[in-house]
Amino acid sequence: MGIGVEEDAAGVRAMYEILDDIFICSSYSKNFGLYSERVGCLIYKSNNENKSEKLLSQLKKTARTIYSNPPAHGSEIVKIILNDESLKNLWTKDLTTLRNRIISMRTSLNSNLKELGCSKDFSFIEDQKGMFSFSGMSKEEVIQLKKDFSIYIVESGRINIAGITTKNIEYISNSINQVVK
Asked: pTM score, two decimals?
């Protein structure tokens, strides 16, 4: 959800190439819209075969005690999409559309707050990537936003930018402006 599928993976791929040992965790909840399926993977690379075998043994034991046999439905969906070039291209296009909408909401939120003469500078929101943004709002401001305006964000100040729409952005902007004064 940052710049693009290939661009977002570039750093991880570079680390994979240069490190002897690396763990990579990936979730498909957001980028495939599979929130209730709990689909993801753990990739481990090591140049030490003995270490890899021991780790695999421990991971299998852990998995067995936690869930034994994970449901396959979500992973089958991901497999079908990634193994079919036309579906993969459609998925990539959909991600681009979603990413561009989120960027637009970030830009609009910052612009609206500037136009309102907000006492706090929110321009950093445009530099952040992905569905969420750390607003820098205090716990007290977050509580007031909830109490006075029925806007719910995490107490740390993390805002779900993907939840902002053209229909609610003015209300959200006005509410934030009133709270941070």
From this structure: 0.81
